[in-house]
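Submission sheet (multi-component)
Chains listed below:
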Amino acid sequence: MTSAASRPRREGLSEAATHRLSLLLRSLGVLEAEGVDTISSPGLAQRLGVNAAQIRKDLAHLGEFGVRGVGYHVADLRARLGAILGLDRVRVVVIVGAGHLGQALADSKNFNGESFRVDALFDVDGRKVGGRSRTGVPIRHTGTLRASVEELGAEIGVLAVPPESAEAAARALAEAGVRGILNFAPATVGPFAGTTVKNVDLTLSLETLAIQLTPAAT
Amino acid sequence: MTSAASRPRREGLSEAATHRLSLLLRSLGVLEAEGVDTISSPGLAQRLGVNAAQIRKDLAHLGEFGVRGVGYHVADLRARLGAILGLDRVRVVVIVGAGHLGQALADSKNFNGESFRVDALFDVDGRKVGGRSRTGVPIRHTGTLRASVEELGAEIGVLAVPPESAEAAARALAEAGVRGILNFAPATVGPFAGTTVKNVDLTLSLETLAIQLTPAAT
DNA sequence: TGCTGTGAAACCGTTCACAGCT
DNA sequence: AGCTGTGAACGGTTTCACAGCA
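Outcome: structure written.
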């Protein structure tokens, strides 16, 4: 029962808008914890460092949430937004690649919060299989991916394997039925029908940062 | 001698363009390894999954690199592009936060390649200080950041600390003189004059992926 | 002929400005 | 009076289309 009825379309949400809405939701959580009852779009804009009209436009994509002359009711907006964005329930995540990065992610608060929980790691290394990460996430053999995804009800797969193995691992995840893949390998994978891939290329992030550095004033 | 003379301006490069150029450079490396001598913009476009005109426009921001009727000379373009983007030399990176993520990054190939090398980790935990990561990166006390950055000639700082400590650690890095900060903490830091901050918010990445998932066809 | 480099056109996202409501 | 929601203006990026060249 995940309030899927009469869900406003999430299409037509640009990457940037999605980003901001996610940030907005985080901010609303903080506001709620602070006991703030009501907030206006200029108020939110200041917190997030964006334009107030932008916030209203972003929200307009999803429905009407505010009260004219007043603003937004924090708890209400947070609840409705969370439901619409599908972040009001816990999604099961599995991670392929039980190397240092994979294990760090499996144990991190980032991936184990109100909306996500890592339930399994996968690796081809027989010495790791059968073990557990520091916080207790079990490591299974990659060959069991398909059965495990089904068994655990995993919706999202994280790729933390070397670039050579990325494509194969991604295909295995897609075929196992995950709906989204978060790819940490510095390689292009997919596309796969029915599975969304999002790349978080750490090498690329570091490179683009380096490129954007203002040349040293010599 | 880092070929800094007559460098075309890197201003006016959008975030997206920077991204694509970085990807292009990676692709050129692959092509060179494959022994490909020459490639056209449609050829590159197909590899990268973007429009051919886009590639020509991106390159046009930096100069003229091609030969009409022929295309681009792979090795030449790679060398010139690498020099212009400043990726033709090794930059020293330091990582603040020697937790699982920080250590995983310090040891990863992502951060130790042709353009980057992690030379130190920093932590406030006395039990970690003095130790080393698995591949031997030394862990120093965060108090020594300023002196260390200078000593090592570090240009880039990576933030892998809990969100509560992010702002303070970021300021320490900025004051220590790094030119760029790659922030993995789910928190806003800065801005700081003279230091570029790039956020790689893992929680946000996972959330935006989840949001973009096509709703399950029920 | 086939490609690059580039002006012009189309597209998309952001910002402005205001009508309408409380 | 103050705010939301939104049509219209703006600005930037992407794509098209072609002139110029090997």
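Remark: Residues 15-33 of chain B form the longest helix (19 residues).
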